[in-house]
Amino acid sequence: MSAGTSKWDPKPGDPEGKLLPFEEIKTEADLLPPGAAPGTVPTDLEQATGLERLEILGKMQGIDIFDMSPLPSDRLGTFENPIVVKSAGAEYQVGCTGSPADSHNVKWLVMDRKRPFERCPECGSVYRMDYIGQPDSHDDHHGEHHHHHPAHEAPKTMADFVKPEYWYR
Q1: For the chain, which domains are there?
Q2: What is the pLDDT along the chain (169 residues), one digit of tens a residue?
Q3: Is 120 annotated as a binding residue?
Q4: Was 145 annotated as part of a binding site?
Q5: Is 147 one of the annotated binding-site residues?
Q6: 107 touches 95 (CB < 8 A)
Q7: Are 128 and 85 a contacting pair, CB within 8 Å?
Q8: How does strand 107-112 pair with strand 83-87?
Q9: 104 has binding-site annotation
């Protein structure tokens, strides 16, 4: 092999494979692997696609894409000082076990962009979701062939009937 080339570079006439670094991933198409050379066994990096590929590329850069570390349980969150979770998705589920940890059975709490605060009904700990995902784009709403679908409405709960003046701001 000559300087500046590697065994991963495509040979003349071969289709060019894509081994993009994590920073250059912009679309789902960027998560398609080049595959292994004929007659060889592919590595995880050559074979993985989609979220698995994104996770591998992130770990290679020291980034934990799916941060599954436990939330702080050394204190109870309050509205003034909530336990903050970051989410790239529009919705986030938190399993509260109390403070100290395992003080009660897991209570699953759901937060979303419209209702970023949630309070555990068992221990009263407050959680807040910080949305870190892509900002909404309204550019594609003006096309001629755009189909409008009714928005999904979450089921009503007692919290929906609390007067707005009692909401935390």
Answers
A1: 22-60 (no CATH), 70-134 (2.60.260.40)
A2: 555 555 555 566 554 556 777 788 888 878 888 788 888 998 888 888 888 888 888 888 888 888 788 888 888 999 999 999 988 888 889 999 988 888 999 999 999 988 999 999 999 999 999 998 777 755 545 555 555 666 667 667 776 777 777 766 5
A3: yes
A4: no
A5: no
A6: yes
A7: yes
A8: unpaired
A9: yes
